[in-house]
Amino acid sequence: MSPVVLYMFSGVAIFGVCLYGLIVHAHLIRKILALNIMGSGVFLLLTGVARRGPEVDAVPQALVLTGIVVTVAATALALALTRRVQSETGRAYLPEESLEEDPDEENSG
Hints:
It contains four helices and no strands.
């Protein structure tokens, strides 16, 4: 197995595992981490695609560099929103019910 194929298979495996983690976990920080690692899997896949011929293709490499910049900006925004959700609700989970139907408020009222 060549290193190119190994890069591509490992990128797909990382993406699949993190997609499962993104769906299963309810905590927002874990979801953000899963998205970041999913991006790394896509970057590995693009790196493998860039090396599949006798010469290295520059377009997938440029996409990876651009993707890294976008990932950093999206992570900063997601962390800021998570912090805002925690300051408003007191927990880092998305509420499953509306705030009017929260059973904690009925018992404390």
